[in-house]
Amino acid sequence: MKKLLLVISALFATLFVNAQNTPAQSNEPKAEITFKESSHDFGDIVQGSSVTHVFEFKNTGKAPLVISNVSATCGCTIPEWPKEPILPGKKGSIKATFNSTGKSGKQNKPITITSNAATPTAVVTIYSNVVSPPAPATTTPAAPATK
To answer: What is the pLDDT along the chain (147 residues), one digit of tens a residue?
Structure first.
């Protein structure tokens, strides 16, 4: 019986300590990233070409927005983003360049944005359909001139 009471006491002590160490919900103002659009479709593009789209956003929160990282799923998509904080009410943009070399068919490239926003991860996506370049025109040799 004493062992049972000791185990129960230890359990309550652990729960009490964990409850004391759990951070309370903060009422601090938070940044919030709101995109004008969450995706862009380039349509058909010729294999080997590069295309770029700029995703515009606004900090609709009440604290400066700091973007810590922007990543794409493959090396064919290169993102660029502002390194300085975006103040509340101000706008910014993320530029995404897709290189279609070695790609074919329908492409879906998500770009993940990590920031200090209330929702710390956001995703925008670019789409395209990579088509083969046109075949080079063939020329037929000229017929010999007749006299």
So the answer is: 555 444 454 444 444 444 444 444 568 999 999 999 999 999 999 999 999 999 999 999 999 999 999 999 999 999 999 999 999 999 999 999 999 999 999 999 999 999 999 999 999 999 999 999 887 777 666 666 666
CATH topology of domain 33-131: Immunoglobulin-like (2.60.40)
Q: How far apart are CA 87 and CA 95, in angstroms?
A: 19
List the domain boundaries for the chain: 33-131
Amino acid at 105: G
DSSP string, the chain: -HHHHHHHHHHHHHHHHHHHHSPPPP-S--B-EEES-SEEEEEEEETT-EEEEEEEEEE-SSS-B-EEEEEESSTTEEEE---SPBPTT-EEEEEEEEE-TT--EEEEEEEEEEESBSS-EEEEEEEEEEEPPPPPPP-PPPPPP--
Q: Look up the pTM and report it.
A: 0.74
